[in-house]
């Protein structure tokens, strides 16, 4: 795994109401709520993490719930527009029935690249897909009373980026990240890495006349790619700087270390490490049960807790 991008680490999106967001992803979708913390840049705002049992890279969906009444995002070019989850073959009937039960907006199943998928929207309008992957996905799912292992999500299958031109973004994927073009259907180009078996796909959709999107409620804030450790992280920092792009210094995000840069098509990319993981400040059994604050905000705990809405 030396000096490789290991697929998707996590995806971060923006939501409105915190309790509604928590209920949808933990109850309706059946993800494990693995961390309740705050936005490093705005400690009066939650930062939620959902994933599998341990918060494995490639399963982690995170949210900044900014509260009711925030501006709605607009899908367009220069942004991530679809989040794809892997689900077992034959499970889409279960999910359609479940979406009916919980009044979730969805489309009838369709197919792309030989894979059956179901598109749906979360309560804030974020677009997601449940995809019956052609390749076996043996990742251990998180189970709930209502969402059992035979239908549960396994983690990410892919992320879709919408761009006016894919050329410069594709160059980042192939020349820096080690991805290869593996398929194309009209204006959708599928890139994948062989470094990992799952969460390995990035789809680029080229729409030359598409207006620029606006990141706000119900949209993806950034996509994080995975590396094994800090040393490899800094190797990629050198590569990206040498490529001529502006990139941040290493940032400690409590559960991983990160770099951020905006790729030429306009999407905010992050590179994040596996270490130290989500059990650095909570036991595996306790994940998501307690409000965890970055050390610099611990002295404000009383006022922060007073401001944040109770979710569970």
Structure description:
The protein has helices at 18-28, 92-101, 167-176, 230-242, 301-307; strands at residues 8-15, 32-39, 42-51, 60-65, 79-87, 110-112, 115-121, 127-132, 155-163, 180-185, 188-192, 201-206, 220-227, 251-252, 256-262, 268-276. The chain has 5 helices and 16 strands. With 312 residues, it is an alpha+beta fold. It is globular, with a radius of gyration of 18 Å. The protein is 16% helix and 35% strand. An 8-stranded mixed β-sheet has the order 2-3-4-1-13-16-15-14.
Q: What integer is the average pLDDT?
A: 96
**Physical arrangement of strands within the biggest beta sheet:** 2-3-4-1-13-16-15-14
* Multimeric organization: single chain
Report the order of strands and helices.
EHEEEEHEEEEHEEEEHEEEH
The number of strands is 16
Helix content estimate: 10-25%
User: Count of helical segments?
Assistant: 5
Cα-atom Rg, whole angstroms? 18 Å
How do the strands and helices of this protein lay out in sequence?
Elements: E1 8-15, H1 18-28, E2 32-39, E3 42-51, E4 60-65, E5 79-87, H2 92-101, E6 110-112, E7 115-121, E8 127-132, E9 155-163, H3 167-176, E10 180-185, E11 188-192, E12 201-206, E13 220-227, H4 230-242, E14 251-252, E15 256-262, E16 268-276, H5 301-307
């Amino acid at each position: 795994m030396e000096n490789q991008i290991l697929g998707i680490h996590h995806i971060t999106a923006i939501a409105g109401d915190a309790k509604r967001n928590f209920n949808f992803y933990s109850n309706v979708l059946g993800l494990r709520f693995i961390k309740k913390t705050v936005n490093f840049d705005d400690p009066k705002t939650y930062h939620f993490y959902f994933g599998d049992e341990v918060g494995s890279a490639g399963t982690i969906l995170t949210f900044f719930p900014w509260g009711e009444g925030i501006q709605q995002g607009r899908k367009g070019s220069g942004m991530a527009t679809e989040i794809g989850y892997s689900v077992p073959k034959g499970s889409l009937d279960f999910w359609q029935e479940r979406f009916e039960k919980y009044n979730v907006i969805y489309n009838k199943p369709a197919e792309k690249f030989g894979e059956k998928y179901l598109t749906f929207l979360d309560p804030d309008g974020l677009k997601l897909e449940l995809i019956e992957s052609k390749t076996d996905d043996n990742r251990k799912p998180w189970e709930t009373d209502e969402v059992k292992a035979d239908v549960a999500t396994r983690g990410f299958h892919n992320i879709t980026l919408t761009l006016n031109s894919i050329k410069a973004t594709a160059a980042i994927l192939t020349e820096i990240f080690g991805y290869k073009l593996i398929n194309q259907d009209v204006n959708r180009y599928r890139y994948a890495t062989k470094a990992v078996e799952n969460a390995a796909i990035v789809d680029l959709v080229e729409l030359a006349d598409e207006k620029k999107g606006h990141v706000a409620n119900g949209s993806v804030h950034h996509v994080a790619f995975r590396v094994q450790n800090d040393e490899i992280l800094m190797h990629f920092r050198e590569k990206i700087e040498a490529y001529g792009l502006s990139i941040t210094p290493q940032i400690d995000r409590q559960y991983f270390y990160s770099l951020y840069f905006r790729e030429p098509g306009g999407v905010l990319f992050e590179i994040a490490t596996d270490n130290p993981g989500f059990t650095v400040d909570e036991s595996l059994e306790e994940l998501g049960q307690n409000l965890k604050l970055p050390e610099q905000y611990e002295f404000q705990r009383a006022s922060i807790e007073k401001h944040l809405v109770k979710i569970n």
